[in-house]
Amino acid sequence: MNKPPADPFAEVRKATNQHRARHGCGTYPYDNGPLLSVLAAAVQARRIVELGTALGYTALSFAYGAPDSTVDSVERDPEHVRLARDHIAVAALDHRITVHEGDFAKVLLMLDPGYDLAFFDGHAPLPVLHTALRKLLRTGGMLITANLSHGGTADAVSRALFDGKSWRSALVGEEGETAISVKL
Question: Mind listing the pLDDT tens digit for each residue in 3-59?
């Protein structure tokens, strides 16, 4: 059996974990950047939107997997925005990845619909944000929702993703905390 290729952004993931340990903030990198790269490639994503940039690990993973894509990533913490922009520039992907600083709901209102892939990784998912992401995704577009095991509003999002009316969804990960959904 072949060993999977190394994560090209493992150092950014490591830096994110170190940053969280030093500053006590809630920035956790998604566990599997190579999976996100594969999913972006599978849908041949040209436009990607993500909520929760942290230090840029997932935005870089998406851009790597879909080399013809642009990524709009939203982060409200100014220090995380600065650090993410630095990591993205070092990777020479700053011409394809834009980090928007601000509140998720406000920034989403400024974006044009037609995204191929949306990623939610900003604390517990909120129904209002998923409604906004659904409006931004094209029919057949993919939504990846992390943090479904956080309870509260995440429970409402989880129920909506599995209602069979708006999405086709499957859970992934050991804890089933991430849903991969296709917009109907």
Answer: 666 899 999 999 999 999 998 888 888 889 999 999 999 999 999 999 999 999 999
List the CATH number of the domain containing 133. Answer: 3.40.50.150
**Which tokens belong to 120?**
């939610």
Q: Evaluate whether 58 touches 121 at the Cβ level (below 8 Å).
A: yes
User: Domain range for residue 177?
Assistant: 31-183
- Supply the DSSP symbol for 150: G
Whether 21 is in a domain gets the answer no
Q: Count CB neighbours of 39 within 10 A.
A: 21
Per-residue DSSP letter, 116: E
**In the chain, how many domains are there?**
1
Residue 117 counted as domain residue: yes
Edge-first strand order for the sheet with 97-101 is: 97-101, 70-75, 47-51, 115-120, 137-145, 178-183, 167-172
| 62 contacts 40 by C-beta, under 8 angstroms | yes
In a domain, 142, yes or no: yes
